[in-house]
Amino acid sequence: MTEKNNKKPAFAGVDVGSLATKSVIVSNGTILGYSLIPTGINTEENGLLALQKALDNAKLTRDDLKYIVATGYGRISAPYADKTVTEITCHGKGAHYLHPATRTIIDMGGQDCKAIRLDEKGNVVDFAMNDKCAAGTGRFLEVMANVFKVKLDDLGPMALNAKEIVPMSSTCTVFAESETVSLLARGENPANIIKGIHRAIANRVAGMFSRVGVESDVFFSGGVAKNVGMKAALEEVLKAKIVAPEYDPQLVGALGAAVIAKGFGSKV
Amino acid sequence: MSNNGSLSYPEELKQQFIETNDLNYRDGTIVTAADIWKYMTEEAPKKFPYAFEFGRNNNYLLSEDVEYFSGIKAGYLTLSLKDFLINAHKKGTPLVHVIGGQIMDAYYAAGGIAFRTALVGQAVRSPHDGANLRKVALYAQELEEKGKRAYSYELCGPALRMRGTIDEGLVPIDLLAPFNCIRCSDMARMVESYRDKFPNISLDCPIVDYENKEWAVDYLSSQLHTLTKKVSDLSGKKITDNDVLKEIKLENKARKLARDIYDIWWSAKVPPTNSVDIGEVSQLATDFRGDPLAAIGVLEETKEEIKERVKHSIKGKGLVDDPIRLYVSGMGAGNRRRIDRMGGLLVGADQGWNAISVNVKESGDPYENLANGMLSLPLEQPIERRAELAVEQVKKSKADGVVVTIAWGCNYSSAVVRILADTIKERTGVPTVIFETTPGVEGAEQIENRTESFIEMLKLRVN
Amino acid sequence: MVLDTLKKIEEAIQERPKELEEAKKRGEKVVGWLGYNIPEEIIHALGLIPVRLGTGGDDRLVEVGARYISTKNCVFTRETVGLFAENKDPYIQKSDLVAVDTTCIQMYIAVEVIKYYFKINPLVLGVPRNFYLPDGQEYFNKELEFFTHKLEDFSGNKLDTNRLAGSIKLYNGIRKAIKELYKYQAADKSPIKWREVFDVVHSGFYLDREKYLSLLKELLKELKEKHGLPVIGSLNGDARIFLSGSIIPPKDTKLINIIEEVGGRIVGDDLWSGLTPSLNVNIKDPSIKGIADAYVNRIPHASQPYILNVNTDRRLNNLKQLVHESKGQGVIYHTLRFCDPYTFNANETGAVLKKDSIPLLEIHTEYSGSDFEAIRTRVGAFVELIKNKNILEVET
After folding, report:
1. Count of structural domains within chain A
2. A4: in domain
3. Cβ-Cβ contacts under 8 Å, B449 against chain A
4. CB B87 within 8 A of CB B95
5. Is residue A3 part of a domain?
6. Which residues in chain A are closer than 8 Å to B452, comparing Cβ atoms?
7. Distance from CA of A36 to the nearest CA of B (A)
8. What is the pTM for the complete model shown?
9. How far apart are CA A128 and CA A105, in angstroms?
10. Per residue in B377-409, pLDDT tens?
11. CA dist., res. B79 & res. A16, Å (int)
12. Which of 3.40.50.11890, 3.90.180.10, 3.40.50.300, 1.20.58.220 would CATH assign to domain C22-160?
């Protein structure tokens, strides 16, 4: 690719997740632009749309891009990408870029949850992901927000305001839903139940870390990282401090993909 | 009948209670009825408030039928279990971790005390005194989570509790020696997982199919020799064959008492106790709450008390009139008090019946006798034979309905639920359903919903 | 490079059901077996035809089976029940007697379910959990004697020492050949892939055993001619994956396909449908006791709890050794949901391998297709991890 208008070469990452599609553009050492849109049925179109929006945000065009890496569940339909890489590796690079002291990543998205261990270069050295029927994902919180008739963003602050914890189911979201409905009917304080739900999810996450271990600094990425109640519950259960990213945690995967694109693209 | 509130023993019952029998323990200790009353009205409510609280997470050790004195004594044995075990251990008695539903004769003969995980889990619901229901529920959940993390979410309830008991040091353990029976998928795995941490013995139950195999008896008998030697090394008690025969006689007595009690109870037109109280009978005769002699004392009183109640058509407190009689086959019978409150009555469970059903031969080679006894336990039989025994029980207990349970994590027992349900339905004509149960706080609402619907359905049928 | 013998083996498999039918017409009898510790040598020596039953990967059959057994049982047992329910599998149809051992109690109970609902009268071989203790070994000896007497009644023949010696020689030959094949598939630029060897092992469940041995020898000869001796030397940037865990029976190809799709190269296994049954079988004399002692001393199945010491755990030590021999760079530990023996020791196995710097990824799954993407992501990330490690090692 030739450079136009003396612009530095740019590299893009596209993360096609189950709920949201994200894209980040980087150049040497800087993030130039990004985007985040809901994932629709046509993942290829979605990916291209997210990429275009990120380019618009960066005031660049497709021709300015030297290399594109796609990641996420939808990476399989990303013919526009030069390479596809799993989101585990991408989250590793993304977290390392934002906070080089990261050695452990908790990534909680809509459909899955990951525990990732990094070395000092941001390479993945070990990881674990949630098993089937282990309700430790963003989906659990969505279901619960619906039961309580609140917005997803309200759950975290409600959990922080609870005075007690109600022990909640941690294996089956549907069973937990039944339990919640019955507890509310019995007059249980909603905040206490919500705190119990956060604790249940944190317990699930802790299960994965029993395999890979926890080492500081701990980085929290993925959509659920925006939930302050979840951060608190994780810190309590894992007995570790979590760094607060000065960056939208939903974009970490796409950022990592862009960093990896830069790695490949610079060699081309 | 409230689902909230708490249990207490009214002062006006005290005089009558303290005139009942003392409890005699094996080591010569005597606990008088007055001691028990004091404990259950003063000490226990402070140490174990959760046991006296009616509410969601109570697994009901104590029944609301405060006039049923044997129930108070059974409750005493359970609540005082932790202190009892710790004291026994201090005095040099080895504590041996076993599995529920096995017979314990060999362990006691060799000078040990056998306890099953579920018993500790029921009796020691918190490492600290003064915990309320909410606290014990959170603690139980914490233990379950730790267990799941260490192994898998597919661990069964007892295995989760075993982990908790051992890792939290709820009671001291000198030996892991459960009977690895055919029905249990997880116990052998648990012993294996602690192989470098605790002394252990794997008591392997050979499969009993339809043939009489004397080498299976020899195999188990040889292992029982190893077991008693190990326990007697730990206890310092030198034992002879006669000691083992004596123990068999004692525990046969307990088992017979329990069977007699059930016969009397089943024969009554009006159920003389509620589900919580009758459920304690088989457990007392299986694990003795650590002391077979004390347990026999309570069982003897139980038999007389129930006879009296039947004579005078006294109904167990907490029951509706003509409750729906439910029999449960499989692991996990559900919350007994809640079944009563739904208009039901838990008339029997094959899980509880298992270890009281056998009468071990009291003369000759005691190890061979014990091996034969263990191999004849209903839950160890080929499934058709086991289903026949369940059919017998359903008829004897005059059940209106049968619940066959699948317990989460219990792969082997789950595998045969349909055979059990089909056989029972076919041979008794009694409505039979299959429900799944999960450990701890998980899924309580769903299982209760199903049980309540079944009881409603049966009410219409009976009426 | 296409190996001619592989085509021959495939053709032999196509012919096999018909061959069995003809054998039955001649009065020969088929013993179909399930489990892990049934000694085929004895079945063979009595003039019976052994067939190892059980396939995987079919979610529909799993669902059929779950109507009789329960959804709380592993998919392999559920599918096995489903196979008997439908009775379309040619080997099940042609089995005159079904035998099962009690190594995996879940499978034994599945056979109880099959007995009840599909009126099969199985022959059961008890296997001790205390396989490493004298009384357990004595029990197995007696069980095998009893089992053999029952087979004698069924076959109408008495077990003859010379015939048994012949059968033992045959099976020793088969095991030796399989071990050789495994060396080839792990070798540099090998003309035979792991997957092809895995399929050859499965052919051995069905084919006439004499024919099978001669085909194995032919295959080895072809390999030697086209490739020379197997050498594992340079690691050429492949992500070398070793497969361990719960059984992957014939027709269960989901995980294998995914590993290959994402660029992993499988270089070995210690599966009970792969190499492990061929390891460590030292039959000292042609007798029931000789066979009982040999079987009880080979690599134990994870169902058999070993409660002594992690350092002397033969299963774990064997796993480590095989990974090193095949120069595996990571272990994918396949566990079936509700296969407790493998699932519960995943953490410990991972910790043991970690001491030898071998990463482990557990893939906990069933036969359904609902987790293809999830597995692809996990295995993909693992392959990336290994390849990255390879690059880093080259750079340093």
Report:
1. 2
2. no
3. 178
4. no
5. no
6. none
7. 34
8. 0.91
9. 11
10. 999 999 999 999 899 999 999 999 999 998 888
11. 57
12. 3.40.50.11890
